[in-house]
Amino acid sequence: MCGFVGAFDLNSGSQPIDEGLKEQLRSQVLDMSKKIRHRGPDWSGVYTGNNAILSHERLSIVDPLSGKQPLVSDDGKIILAANGEIYNHQEIRRQFAGKYSFKTQSDCEVIIPLYKKYRAEENGFCKMIEELSGIFAFALYDSEKDVYLIARDEIGVIPLYQAWDKQGRYYVASELKALEGQNMVSIEEFPNGHYFYSKDKKPALWYKRDWEEFSAVENAKRATDDNGEIINEDVIQNVRDGLEKAVKQQLMSDVPYGVLLSGGLDSTVIAAITQKFAKKRIETGSLKDAWWPQLHSFAVGLEGSPDLIAAKKAADFIGTVHHEVHFTIQEALDALEDVIYHIETYDITTVRASTPMYLLARVIKSMGIKMVLSGEGSDELFGGYLYFHKAPNAREFHEELVRKMSKLHLYDCLRANKSLAAWGVEGRVPFLDKDFIDIAMRLNPLDKMNIKLPNGKQRIEKWIVRKAFEDILPPDICWRQKEQFSDGVGYSWIDTLKEMTAQKVSDAEFAQRAKRFPVNTPVTKEEYYYREIFSNLFPSESAALAVPHEAGVACSTAKALEWDEAWSKMDEPSGRAISGVHNDAYKS
Question: What is the pLDDT of residue 586?
Answer without folding.
Answer: 43
